[in-house]
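Tutorial sheet, problem 5. The two components below are modelled jointly, 506 residues in total.
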Amino acid sequence: MHDPKLLLLDPADNVVVAIQTLEAGDSLTVAGQRVTVPARLTLGHKLAARDIRAGEKILKYRVAIGSATQDIAVGEHVHLHNMKSDYIQTFTLDNGQTFSKTHDHH
Amino acid sequence: MIITDQAYLRADGRKGIRNHIVVAYLVECAHHVAREIVYPYRERGVHLIGFGGCYPNDYAARMMRTLCTHPNVGGVLLLSLGCESFNRNSLREAIAASGRPVETLVIQQSGGTRKTIEQGRKLMADLFAKSAAVPQAPLHINEFIVGTVCGGSDATSGITANPGIGRAFDRLVEQKAGCIFEETGELIGCEDIMTARAATPALAEILRDSVTKAAKYYTVLGHGSFAPGNAEGGLTTMEEKSMGAYAKSGASRISGLLKPGDIPPRGGLYLLDVVPDGEVRYGFPNINDNAEIAELIACGSHVILFSTGRGSVVGSAISPVIKVCANPETYRRMSEDMDVDAGKILEGRASLDEVGREILDLALAVARGAQTKSEELGHQEFVLTYKSFEPIGPSCLPSA
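Model answer (structure tokens):
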């Protein structure tokens, strides 16, 4: 169960979305656990809906929107500091000239 | 279903929901004179568009032709300096052949700034009279074309406004209206999900190629369609933003791929490929939201559904822009600029289906003459830059 300030977009997701501003120190329920909001987070930011291991896909809308760059505990803010895109880097320039897909993105 | 009995019937059979006079400058050097001619009439539906470049460009010529002959346009005044490369005669001929009144002023021949402004304002009365004589006729929903774009996105865009627009698109497509979504650069990461909706396997490949082309463009330019404001709003990656943008397309089958200036041949859902073909030239594919809006209008869009989370204020020349605000906090701050408060979904004040219905109803009301917020506030942004495209092939528009 999640706090009503948090929205789970799809049951498969491992992040929830803040649907109102969360203040630093707020106590929230995420997946039945009490967590404390570490810093002020505005609407739209993501929190881990469960423990996520480094390298695991971040799922939102039941779709991978990137992967974790470190272990993320339930309730932690999920953003640029602990996840990265899996996508745009798959397109690189060879010697600055040739466009190629370096590996399959599927 | 008949949306209105009072659409403007053009000689080519297309029907407009507005009857704007357009003043079009053909090079930046004629921009000031054009703007001065428009100024006293700006609240009477006279809109300013133009192309700033002095060098010839097929894309710009096609965009100007399709915009000056858009069904929402009732008459055109062309403003030329005189020595620019833009072919003013072929543009004038195309507009005249479309049955619209058209006049041309060449500043070097008219005797400079003041004299050209005087002549232009004198020509306005005649253009008003001629454009007012256009016959009116019923507009069926299967003749209605709606485009969608997002700008100033945040993480609410993909939760409220974009899926709300998607619901409205689904209802429009069911009734055989033409619906156009775009910005292939914002669909990077969604290729598999999107191509599964294509009407034919050949179209699926074309859709995928259009996104690959966009990825190449952004890679070469070293810059994705991801602005610092997006991350501040809680979006972390390109693919996360893409999923949010993609939600605007709804769930209908995708009937075809268009390029700027292609008119949907029949109702259905279309992807507009806005990224130029060939080697990367001329810089960023779309320098701002209005560049995309102008292209959606060049594809015949009568109305634009604009989704914003952080809060855009823009409208457009030629076609009304309906702003759907995704974020309830932004809505409270900027409600004078917003047509739909989609963020109320987040506050339990409406469901996604209800917001979708509200967007659809408003689009139909605007087609009947209701003014959007950006129209009331006098917005008529327009921008057109250099690009190059190859024509679409037959597989882009498989028959129904």
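Marking note: The interface with chain A takes residues 154-156, 158-159, 188-190, 192-193, 215-216, 218-220, 224, 231, 233-240, 243, 247, 309, 327, 329, 346-347 of chain B (CB under 8 Å). Full credit if you identified this.
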